[in-house]
Amino acid sequence: MTATALPLVVAAAFVHAGWNLAAKRVPGGGARFVFLYYAVSAALLVPIAAVVVPVAGWSLSGTWVLAMVGTAVFHVAYGVVLQRGYAVGDLSVVYPVARGSGPLLSVAIAVLVLGERPGAVGLVGAALVVLGVFVIGTGSSTGSTNTAATDGGIARRAGIVWGVLTGVTIAAYTLWDAFSVTTLDVPVVAYLAGGSALQALLLAPVAGRDRSDTGRLWREHRREVVLVGLLSPVAYVLVLLAMRIAPVSMVAPARELGIVVGGLAAWRMFGEPDPLRRILGSLVVLAGITAIALA
């Protein structure tokens, strides 16, 4: 990975962990919470794109629309599945399992389907990242503060299941977005703006079915909605920019540095268990990040 791409990916990892911590604070928000923060993202990005696209001389094409529809579908699935995971499991299980299984699938498909060849050191680094993620995410849930499943074992198993399902959606949008911004050459700002607007539109019927509950979520969790809505696109802009200058099979695992921050922060903020196991897993992840940087 180049010296330019690595700082982008590391910054994205920290920002990503931050918005996931905010999302975990709204475990019962469901699809309506996801709608609200996608709407905030659209409100931020669409005006920016409306200025940048004409100035740059770009024009909307059918290819752009297809790419945006694809990313909207994948990201809506991701947002809803992730929020469900946070409702039934601990962040320190759901987050690392999701972020580990996603890159594992992304690397496998990038190598087997896209023909990328990251090299032996890079693949070892990717494997270490995945190993570290699962060390962090598969410990005991004794002492969990999760209210949706009071039994620790049930909460841990539910977190693993929903984490893996989230990982599938991560692999899907990672590969689709890499294809869109590289092969299709869709500008990042326009891509994110169009995608976020479509994401909000796709979830609007869900939010509209119970406007009072949607309004309650906004009133009670406005800070979390705004934080996720602003930080989520910032994190992903950094990732998409990195994908333009580095292989997706390297970017996807390297961005998982965020699970180190997220896992330890979940222990401090939510009282989630197994801090020693998470530290060990974090060290394995950092070893993988180092290998990827040297690849």
Automatic annotation (TrEMBL):
InterPro entries: EamA_dom (IPR000620), EmrE-like (IPR037185). Pfam families: EamA. Keywords: Membrane, Transmembrane, Transmembrane helix. GO terms for cellular component: membrane. The chain crosses the membrane at residues 6-23, 35-56, 62-81, 93-114, 120-137, 158-176, 188-204, 225-246, 276-294. It comes from the Bacteria. Residues 158-292 form the EamA domain. Signal peptide: none annotated. Coiled coil: none annotated. Belongs to the EamA transporter family. This is EamA-like transporter family protein. It comes from Prauserella rugosa.
